[in-house]
Design goal:
mainly beta, two-stranded antiparallel sheet, globular
Length: about 140
């Protein structure tokens, strides 16, 4: 388990990486990962068929495009706002000015979902990278 025996300084974790769309696993809660990610530019359209996806904006502003049965729409979130994308809904997160986001997903969930557009070089296909002791634990 990550983050269960020591406090974790999220500022120190953020200082340890600059890559957008490359989430770090900062804790596990039951069968879920709590991930910290930087958003910059556009991610890809993707869907998680079997799980919802939780977004909490810690800094900056993000936009989440959604493809729903009634058509496409967008949700814009600022610092301190959260949104849950329901399972089975294609979505595309983006941030024109950069943002820091906390995500909650079942352990092992791919950052590009179960079905997705072609993955560009700036998007990391990952289930998250664990944070090490030197990256923020005190």
């Amino acid at each position: 388990m990550i983050g269960m025996s020591q406090p974790l300084d999220l500022r120190a974790v953020l200082a340890g990486f600059t890559e957008a769309w490359s989430p770090r696993i900062v804790a596990n809660v039951n069968d879920y990962d709590v991930r910290l990610a930087r958003f910059a530019g556009e991610h890809i359209w993707h869907v998680h068929e079997n799980t919802d996806e939780f977004f909490l904006v810690l800094d900056g502003t993000i936009h989440i495009g959604l493809r729903e049965p009634g058509g496409e729409r967008g949700v814009t979130l600022g610092k301190g706002e959260l949104f849950v994308v329901p399972r089975g809904v294609f979505h595309r997160p983006s941030s024109s000015d950069g943002a820091v986001v906390l995500l909650v997903e079942p352990t092992g969930t791919l950052s590009v979902g179960d079905d997705h557009d072609e993955v560009p070089d700036h998007v990391t296909v990952t289930t998250g990278q664990p944070v090490t002791h030197s990256s923020g634990y005190r």
